[in-house]
Amino acid sequence: MVDVPATDNEVGTETSTQRREFRSKLMEGEIFWRDHYTWLKDQGYLLRPRYHPEWDPQWKDEPRTVQLGKEDAIFLMSGHLIDATRSANAQIVMLKQISILDHPKEVELTQYFSREPFASHPRNHCVQLIDVLRVPSQPDIVILVLPLLRPYEDPWFETVGEAVEFFRQIFEGLQFIHQCHIAHRDCMHKNIMLDPSQMFPDLYHPMRLERNRSLTGRAKFSSRTSRPVKYYFIDFGISSMYSADDPHPREIPIFSGDKSPPEYRTPTEPCDSYAVDIYLLGNVIRKDVMTTTKCLGFMEPLVSDMCHKDPAQRPSIDEVIKRFDVIYHSLNWFKLRSRLVPVNESRFGFLPFLRATDHFLRTTVHVLLGKQAIPTPRT
């Protein structure tokens, strides 16, 4: 038999069919959640219909455009993390599956910051643990029940004052962690989140952050200036607790999500874990915030020192806060109310004019309503 090359139409049909089937089948990382659907329900946590053991999507033969609007067509981007509804109060929560063999300290340290007297401490910016579920017949697997949080930069900061408040909170949060004699060791951008309950009073779909919960439109939100938010550190999987008598604990580095600390170039040599935290946090500000905007030059000297190639030359978190406090009080009202302008935006043109006009009108409303230039949430 001679193989006949497929025509363009046949190739297109096959691709279309594969796309339709893609969402109608569980991903490998989703199987665990389907297999534990009933058990999780008994524990008080209800997963979405996609993970019901008898799930059979009625839309599986529909076009891709139809599938995209179906709630149970949304699959997990990361198999170890899933959203659920807490039966006791209808709260949307996140379930995080962890292996205690790979991350033996994560449960202990997350619980540590979630218990009194730390849980209610106003300077505590560590994610608050809701529950711990021990998976039956799998003693090395634990599920952490965590609040629904959102990436710290989504949506982006509108004003200099909003960015300044972000800096203040993450410095305060890391100081609290270090004062508890713990190094986070992975405080890069993906592990800093915000509590969305103020900005997004109606919330959003946990797996489609830009859409409302019913997927019928975009999620509605307010600015940070209108409704101030609190920021949180998450993921204590590689964190370590040290002796209170050791201000510079040295340990073999564990690579974080940010691979750029100079200490990682000699991975067999012990390094100061607190100094690595300083670098990682400084790099969040330098790489994620300062390189994308034009208006934050006042942070350059401090951030540069935080990211110094010599760990011994980096300031401690207490020194960071002292220097930041001077910066904080030096910024005038006009600077703080200024729009955070993207680095690639030109000074002239119709679009910059529209953005500036919109910002002026928003700022006028905020001033008339008595909104703070540095929007600090109530404690």
UniProtKB/TrEMBL annotation:
<dbReference type="InterPro" id="IPR000719">
    <property type="entry name" value="Prot_kinase_dom"/>
</dbReference>
<dbReference type="GO" id="GO:0005634">
    <property type="term" value="C:nucleus"/>
</dbReference>
<dbReference type="GO" id="GO:0044773">
    <property type="term" value="P:mitotic DNA damage checkpoint signaling"/>
</dbReference>
<dbReference type="GO" id="GO:0004674">
    <property type="term" value="F:protein serine/threonine kinase activity"/>
</dbReference>
<dbReference type="InterPro" id="IPR011009">
    <property type="entry name" value="Kinase-like_dom_sf"/>
</dbReference>
<protein>
    <recommendedName>
        <fullName>Protein kinase domain-containing protein</fullName>
    </recommendedName>
</protein>
<dbReference type="GO" id="GO:0005524">
    <property type="term" value="F:ATP binding"/>
</dbReference>
<feature type="domain" description="Protein kinase">
    <location>
        <begin position="17"/>
        <end position="369"/>
    </location>
</feature>
